[in-house]
Amino acid sequence: MKRGMLIILSGPSGVGKGTVREELFKDESLNLSYSISMTTRKPRPAETEGVDYFFVDEKTFVDKIAQGGLLEWARFVGNYYGTPKDNVDRLLDEGKNVVLEIEVQGALQVMKKCPDALTIFLVPPSLEELERRIRGRRTESEDIVKERLDKARKEIQTKDEYKYVVENDDVHLAKDKIAKIIREHKI
Ligand SMILES: Nc1ncnc2c1ncn2[C@@H]1O[C@H](COP(=O)(O)OP(=O)(O)OP(=O)(O)O)[C@@H](O)[C@H]1O
Ligand SMILES: Nc1nc2c(ncn2[C@@H]2O[C@H](COP(=O)(O)O)[C@@H](O)[C@H]2O)c(=O)[nH]1
Description:
- This protein is of the alpha/beta class.
- Helices cover 41% and strands 22% of the residues.
- It has one domain (6-184): P-loop containing nucleotide triphosphate hydrolases (Rossmann fold).
- It binds adenosine-5'-triphosphate and ligand LQESDW3C.
């Protein structure tokens, strides 16, 4: 069986990675599978263990790093986030196109380890719109919103490290652009 493609969907917090990813996953012809990350962040009310994330304590996360069990990991605004390696390898072996929805530090690590990965950076139409989206989601405290926006300004400066940059103005247009990129990308 042909090994699947590794796809990194990155971009600042609140740009709409999760929203666009949900649209992409409705298209079964793309043969996508989602890599569920591990995090020390507390679950939001609508989040489910093992679906949105594997929610763990700091010791479990640090042990996982020490065991070499993460493909990449980063500290982002006070919490650890990382990609369990075994799961990604298994899904790729099964021929799935595996989506990592991750922030910039982790994406840069994967680019080094897996230069063939398809890397896509989602940009907002403007920083003002990004702020509206983060605030509109009502999941973060004021302090965290400010930290995430500060981080976003720096993250956007790295966009040229990615193979593709896609603006998320309209969710369906962004989904269509990314679907086309996935279909046409050759490893
Ligand atoms: N194109 C769009 N136009 C308007 N609102 C959008 C658009 N895309 C996403 N949103 C909204 O912006 C908010 C943030 O989206 P989402 O949670 O998908 O972002 P994210 O990049 O996955 O964030 P995080 O990295 O923090 O997980 C949500 O309320 C979502 O409904
Ligand atoms: N480097 C990694 N970043 C990840 C991973 N899983 C999610 N993320 C990114 O972290 C921020 C914050 O996420 P949130 O759920 O607290 O809003 C966001 O950019 C995510 O894409 C991961 O495994 N590694």
